[in-house]
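INTERNAL AUDIT FORM
Audit reference: QA-55
Scope: verify that the stored structure record matches its stored sequence.
Auditor: D.O.
Record contents follow.
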Amino acid sequence: MPRSRINGNFIDKTFSIVANILLRIIPTTSGEKEAFTYYRDGMSAQSEGNYAEALQNYYEAMRLEIDPYDRSYILYNIGLIHTRNGEHTKALEYYFRALERNPFLPQALNNMAVICHYDRGEQAIRQGDSEIAEAWFDQAAEYWKQAIALTPGNYIEAQNWLKITRRFE
């Protein structure tokens, strides 16, 4: 039974009902419908913390989905899972791939900046390598600037950090 039929969460059920109605109304191929079903089931599993199941659904959705925009969100969600699992190199790879297909994903840019700053830059400081840390902080700044350019009212903490560190132009 598809995950969308067994999930007890009210919001997930509501989303599933609306999504099913839209799939019936909007003209789509059976492959697109199947891809969306896997994507929806992946989101549901991810929201419940079932990351292995979510990844299986996302990989199947990627196999079926042909639209680059839709694929970008699948790749982004795969990146989120790798971030959550502490696999930051893999996460960065998936965020990059998502941005190749959809350069208007400020959340991917923000997550990349967070990894560069808090994982890589802070780690370099703990290891006593301030030069490497500064390079990571500069990279984080570039990603945050791009994210802020796409959504100027968001990422206030990042904007403050950019100003304090004189990285905001």
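Auditor finding: record pair retrieved intact. The chain has a mean pLDDT of 90.
Action required: none
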